[in-house]
Amino acid sequence: MNIWQICWAGVKSNFTSVVRVITLICIAIVPVLYPLFYLQAFWDPYGNLEHLPVAMVNLDTGSGSVNLGANLVTSLQDSHDIEWHFVDLETADSGLVDMTYYAEFVIPSDFSTTLEAVKDGHPQTAHIELRTNSKNSFMSSLLAQQVETRLQTKLSQQVATTYLTAMLDSLAQGSGKLAAGAGLADPTGKSPLTQGTQAFAAQVEALSQAGIADFVANPIDAVVTDTNPVPNYGTGFAPYFLSLSGWIGALLITLTIGSRLRRVPTKAGPVRTVIGRYLACAVVGAIQSVLMVGVIALVGIEPKSWAGLLGVLLASSFASVAIVSTLVALLGRLGQLFAMIILVFQLTGCGGTFPTPLTNGTFFTDIHPYVSFTYSIRALREVISAQTINVGGVWKAVGFLAVYIVASLVINVALYPLLNRVKKRVMSRSEESADGSVGEANTKMQTQGEPAEVLAADMAVPVGAGTN
User: Fold this and answer.
1) Which residue in 126, 172, 319, 380 is a FRET match for 390, CA 20 to 30 A apart?
2) In terms of residue numbers, what domain contains 34?
3) Can you give the pLDDT at residue 37?
4) Count of Cβ atoms closer than 10 Å to residue 110 Cβ
5) What angle do CA 211, 213, 214 make, to 5 degrees?
6) Average pLDDT for 167-181
7) What is the pTM of this model?
8) CA distance 67 to 110
9) Residue 241 in contact with residue 248, Cβ under 8 Å?
């Protein structure tokens, strides 16, 4: 056979059965899904800030009849640039911890008093506190600074307009007094014009010396406090890539070790067979997890708890192995393709890069609670970046990963007898229709020094979890 004949024979082999045609279609489609869904999900996160939940706490006690904090809250209630939540301090603090809010702004009690001091010629910059939690989402902290910039601009414009108007009114009153006193004189010999001119000049000088220009340019400043600072991008994105690595590792385990295990006949029942084969794959997943801890140390990331890091990586790996091995056990090669498709939704729905509220549409937010990466990333963020690890939160996330493990194994065991019967029937028909071709292949394979059993095994790829 020449090169083109070999090529054409390979192409035709993809269309010899319905399963192979479906497999070919999936192979062609899967790579397209990654840019399609990923680019769609994160097309313009900064343009979707109106979906980012941010808490606003007003502690301003006011100054006389003026309460600038309340005025600010009123103006923000009519704003749709950010998803503002006007709550008390306790609610905001707890929400920042459990990811109800991605940032928290606090208007201090002396906000109005500080700004009102400009009327007495003592302008002071007022401060608003911005609280973030980089542990929950490294990118959300950066986005919160964008929110802070918008808020500061809005406030500065309002405050500057208000006080510039007040100052101009004050100067206008002084100017009026000058005009009214023109041509008049008092008993001391000084005319009201002279007195008004001196007062007006003193007022202008006082405003100039008081730094009014600086105040108008920057009446409000933000004090940023990060409750769980993350030192760099590598640390911030480590949970995301560690979860991805665990899934890729599970795919490789299933493609190699899992494939060999399914070709080994057992005399055990479904429960022992499924669990035994799963544990054999999980052992390799455990080795991968230990190596990933070594990589974390090698690149210089310093987790809060090394033991916690290893524990969460093990749970994440075991969950990935359970899901992928079950898909492959039930669907064969199609299961491998479905595992790659599921990975697309894992990456776009887990919130590992940008917060899910900033994705386009609601689909990715809707699937967020159902993808395993959500919980592995959540637990990894705790053990890597938390100043004080939320042990309960870690166990809760690990508990969800355990649910994936148990559910996958239960499905595998439950469908084992049915799929085993289907597999035997398919293999029986394959043997009947391929006796001649296998015999010919045996001769060729033996001539080339290859065992005939290898070809037979390749022609009968397991559809179920294996035979007894």
Assistant:
1) 319
2) 21-41+233-426
3) 82
4) 19
5) 70
6) 62
7) 0.77
8) 10
9) no
